[in-house]
Amino acid sequence: MENLDVMVLRTLRDWRQAGRRALLSTVVRTWGSSPRPIGSIMALAEDGAVVGSVSGGCIEDDLIARYSRAHGGDGAMPSGAPALVKYGITADEAHRFGLPCGGTLELLLEYDPDPASLATLVAALEQGRLMQRTVSLADGAVKLAEAASPAELTVTDSELVNTFGPEYRMLLIGAGQLAEYLATMAKFSGFAVTLCDPRTEYHTAWSLPGVTITTEMPDDAVTAFRPDRRTCVVALTHDPKLDDLALLEALNSEAFYVGAIGSRRNAEARRERMIDHFDQTEASLARLRGPIGIYIGSKTPPEIAVSVMAEILAVKNAVALPREAAVAVAKAAVE
After folding, report:
1. Same domain (yes/no): 158, 176
2. Are residues 195 and 278 in the same domain?
3. What is the domain-level CATH number for residue 205?
4. How many angstroms separate the CA atoms of 5 and 54, rounded?
5. What is the pLDDT of residue 315?
6. Shared-domain flag, residues 215 and 291
């Protein structure tokens, strides 16, 4: 599955280029609990077709009823300037729309977004560029600019600014059953996956479509991949000749996650090897994760893949993991 934002924007572009009326809904503010984070988007066509999500489903149903003619309804798609709409202001509304207790969210609705602007934005995202989209609340005019870094959505009395980034990417080093399970989970989590293994006999049985395969040496593959802050690199071969140099290349990049499979003993041996033979230090290896995965007692390849993917998503979402929290507490106690 591709990045959800790109999928929503591409579908909305196609609708508008075909002359269909449609709106783009963006979560701009939340109070209390909210089913979807700020910046989440959804597109709704005049016939009731929907892509994306701004809630668990009930708000989508209300938007369809209000702004489309689906199922014989009499909803009408408005025109003109964008509108701000709040849901869940009262306890009754929160219950009606299935919001968590005390939850309130505010949406910006853009009516009939310009198809040319959408086409430009989608093309840039498909080229791997990070884009900033600014919407005037007075008239819905849109300005696009390439962004230097990811940023949270902001909204003022005059404009909304949202940053759309290219897909998160995963580089897997080493083909095999675990790699196939992990790639599957990464794909439905919105990652573009590349598999690297110079041992061609290891991926002749690879059956997962939609994964880019390279037979370069892993360190060369990492260099060519150009990891950025939306990239994770995971080594799965257990072979130091393949893993070590690739991991060192990844550690010199902005990759948000760099890790290698293996036991605690193997992870410690890897660190010692890198310090003894590659002039590394504990500080330079601080970002290297290993053993990887959240402890769930996993033994089988699919269970191990679940634990690894959970850890990658936690790091991506800036969630402190239990052992990291314990280390932070210990450091604070010493200080």
Report:
1. no
2. yes
3. 3.40.50.720
4. 12
5. 94
6. yes
> Higher-confidence residue: 321 or 111?
111
Residues 6+ apart with CB under 8 A from 298: 304, 306, 307
* Pair (89, 33) in one structural domain: yes
If we measure between CA atoms, which residue out of 286, 256, 254 comes closest to residue 271? Answer: 286
DSSP characters over 19-63:
T--EEEEEEEEEES--SS-TT-EEEEETTS-EEE-SSSSHHHHHH
Buried/exposed code over 304-313 (b: 16+ C-beta within 10 A; e: otherwise):
bbbbbbbbbb
Domain of residue 208, residue span: 168-325
* pLDDT over 60 (residue 73): no
Give Cα 60 distance to the centre of its chain: 22
Q: Are residues 174 and 308 in the same domain?
A: yes
Query: Distance between CA 302 and CA 179 in Å, rounded?
Result: 10
Tokens 């591709």 found at: 2
Which residue among 122, 142, 164 closes a domain? Answer: 164
Q: What is the pLDDT of residue 331?
A: 47
Dist. CA 204–CA 222, nearest whole Å: 22
- 108-151 confidence digits (pLDDT tens): 999 999 999 999 999 998 887 889 999 999 999 999 999 987 78
Query: Residue 260 and residue 248: Cα distance in Å, rounded?
Result: 11
Claim to verify: residue 47 and residue 184 sit in the same structural domain: no
- Same domain? For 18 and 108 the reply is yes
Buried b (16+ CB within 10 A) or exposed e, 39-52: ebbbbbbbebebbb
Structure-derived torsion over alpha carbons of residues 297, 302, 304, 305, reported in degrees to the nearest 10: -140
pLDDT of residue 55: 80
Q: Does the bond joining 291 to the residue before it have cis omega, within 30 degrees of 0?
A: yes
Number of domains in the chain: 2
Choosing from 164, 180, 196, the residue where a domain stops is 164
Mean pLDDT lowest for which of 27-36, 82-91, 114-123, 130-139?
27-36
- Are 247 and 160 in the same domain? no
